[in-house]
Write a structure and sequence with these properties.
Layout lengths: L6 H29 L6 H28 L4
Helix pairs in contact: 1-2
């Protein structure tokens, strides 16, 4: 995996990394809101499953981008 060394590309990647982290936190909050309910409708369950998949995708993207930047997550 080639690291990002160009200054402009690095800054853009850092900005993208922060955006991904914010999205991951937002998804976590939405998931917590749903799981905190005493009862989930079928629609809620489908939404929860989708949010969890999207959160995992964001996590993978964060790890991949951090690897390219050469930083720990």
């Amino acid at each position: 995996m080639a690291r990002i060394v160009d200054a402009q590309e690095r800054q853009e990647a850092l900005t993208r990394l922060e955006t991904l982290r914010e999205q991951h936190r937002d998804l976590d909050s939405r998931i917590a809101g749903l799981t905190g309910r005493p009862y989930l409708t079928a629609e809620d369950q489908v939404e929860l499953a989708g949010l969890k998949k999207l959160k995992l995708k964001r996590k993978d993207e964060i790890f991949d981008l951090a690897g390219l930047l050469g930083i720990d997550v």
